[in-house]
Amino acid sequence: MSEQNTDKTDKKENIQLSKNDKIKFFIKETVETVVIVLVLVIFIRAFIGEPRWIPSSSMEPGLQIKDNLIIEKVSRYFEKPHRGDILVFFPPPPQQTLNPSLWGKFTRLIGFFSTDEAYIKRVIGLPGEEIRVVPNVGVYVNNKLIKEPYVKAIYSGSCTGDVKYCGPLTVPEHKYYMMGDNRNDSTDSKYWGFLPEKLVVGGKPENMIVGRACFRFWPLNRIGVIQRPSYK
Predict the structure, then answer these.
(1) At residue 1, does pLDDT exceed 50?
(2) 194 and 93 share one domain
(3) Choosing from 73, 121, 175, 190, which is the catalytic residue?
(4) Is 58 an active-site residue?
(5) Positive or negative, the Cα torsion across 35, 114, 182, 131?
(6) Is 121 a catalytic residue?
(7) For the chain, which has fewer Cβ within 10 Å, the N-terminal or C-terminal residue?
(8) Which among 2, 11, 56, 58 is annotated as catalytic?
(9) Are 82 and 112 in contact (CB under 8 A)?
């Protein structure tokens, strides 16, 4: 083989190596980008916020079925829930028993693939307060009837049978009394009692509160910040 032919062969091999290197570099960059994006998505959903949609009518009229919300998770590290906050949370037994496996804990943390049902309700009773739900009248907090312009209708059912937590009840420490705004179509604290901040799952305490509803991004004609009501 002549020296000229050898040079041509070397150039072809170099070009081929260069193409292979480019393909390997592209694959490496793509994998790294996907991994970084997944890590960021998991981090954001676990500790900053996540989207959720409304599956039922329990929070009407303010929140409608299929409304899409941003649930922020940052404020829970700095302050306790306030009356009027709308929270997404995992209800305590007997409503459901949370999956105690590591996979169950992980999926609840990131809000993906979880088989545990989350509720969305409004904080009505705070730790240490006395709560009393009076049918056809309203809700008393520390013997004072609170004004609730956001409710669809005042609760008109009975306080017997399954509805056994109408009070008067004193909210224990680190627990909350939760109610849906659609009082006659909401499985809330009237039925199952108080929401604990944490519950032992799989031998370890776990946050029951996912986060606070802060923004509605769909539908577009009702987009906006979800304000905390004033009770003054």
Answers:
(1) no
(2) yes
(3) 121
(4) yes
(5) negative
(6) yes
(7) C
(8) 58
(9) no
